[in-house]
Design brief:
With 318 residues, the chain is α/β, with parallel strands linked by helices. It is 22% helix and 27% strand. It binds zinc ion (2 copies).
């Protein structure tokens, strides 16, 4: 039997469902799931801030084993691309016009099993256990793509110190960058956590960093942070928005953008990002901080994430 936590309608709690184990089609694999991380995007889907087909099983940070072979694989958000649109043809499959997304437009990993397209899975480096690896599959990967968009900047701000920032702070520090973490104002334990991972400073998002930033990466879904971060970015600097959903961005004076500053977003990932990042993460080596929950407690875990009460990443165990 397969067990899954299913979203029937936005705003409703996920519901445990049982059914037959799904059959993989041509080119697909049946995955026996060992762990699945919970991403903020799952929260946006569950809360109805992102609209996809329903019912759906969320979850796109899957670590599991291929039924039959036992090979360990990771399954990310990018579930399939068309292979022939202008984006796919120019190595930008993250922008594909006709994609499938794991846990959004096809069933994901809040389950005992799932079926995936074999071409979009990654082998997981042996350096990581199942649980430790799960948050790498989205928080890590999207963070990596955001870090690449920050270019060579040495002074780096991370706004929102959750699953993604706690991973990318380690990668950035290992590259010799100075990482400045921004948490919810007054979140002393979040700031201490950031410093423990090599951040040069940690402060509330309403405070100024100790030095001007070459780039700021925004992981919090709070539009007001965009102009706030922009004010702390040097000429030529970038504000990179890494979330899939964000509250509206308030207006701000053009002078804050002047000086060839830019604001851009990160969308999805390519398979190249995945291979690159997992190798890099093993090299650093990244240590993920996780809190695990049984699959049946997915709703409780989502509540804690919504309240900002998870240090590092939440991971479900089927
Ligand atoms: Zn395409
Ligand atoms: Zn995600």
């Amino acid at each position: 039997m397969m067990r899954a936590m299913q979203l029937d309608r936005p705003g409703a709690p996920l519901r445990m469902v049982e059914g037959p184990i799904p059959e993989p089609g041509p080119g697909e694999l049946l995955i026996e799931i060992a762990a699945c991380g919970i991403c903020r995007t799952d929260l946006h889907i569950v809360d109805g801030e992102l609209h996809g087909p329903l019912p759906i099983v969320p979850g796109h940070e899957i670590v599991g084993r291929v039924a039959g072979t036992g090979e360990r694989v990771g399954v990310p958000w990018l579930g399939r691309t068309c292979g022939h649109c202008p984006y796919c043809c120019t190595r930008r499959e993250n922008l594909c016009d006709d994609p499938l997304f794991t846990g959004f437009t096809r069933d994901g990993g809040f389950a005992s099993h799932c079926v995936v397209d074999a071409r979009y899975c990654f082998p997981i480096p042996d350096a990581f256990g199942d649980v430790e690896a799960a948050p790498l599959l989205c928080a890590g990967l999207i963070g990596w793509r955001a870090l690449k968009l920050a270019q060579e900047g040495v002074a780096l701000g991370l706004y929102g110190f959750g699953a993604a920032a706690h991973i990318i702070a380690q990668v950035a520090a290992a590259e010799g960058r100075r990482v400045h973490a921004f948490t919810r104002p007054g979140d002393a334990s979040g700031q201490a956590f950031a410093r423990s991972l090599g951040c040069a400073s940690a402060q509330g998002s309403d405070e100024a960093p100790p030095e001007p930033l070459d780039a700021a990466l925004l992981f919090a879904p709070v539009g007001a942070l965009v102009p706030a971060a922009l004010r702390h970015v040097k000429k030529g600097g970038r504000v990179v928005c890494a979330g899939i959903h964000m509250s509206d961005i308030p207006s701000f004076p053009y002078a804050d953008l002047w000086g060839e500053r830019s604001i851009l977003s990160v969308a999805n990932l390519t398979r190249d990002d995945g291979a690159e990042f997992l190798a890099r993460a093993a090299e650093v080596p990244v240590r993920t901080t996780t809190t695990t929950f049984p699959l049946a407690e997915a709703n409780e875990a989502l509540d804690l994430l919504r309240a900002g009460k998870i240090e590092g990443a939440a991971v479900l165990l089927p």
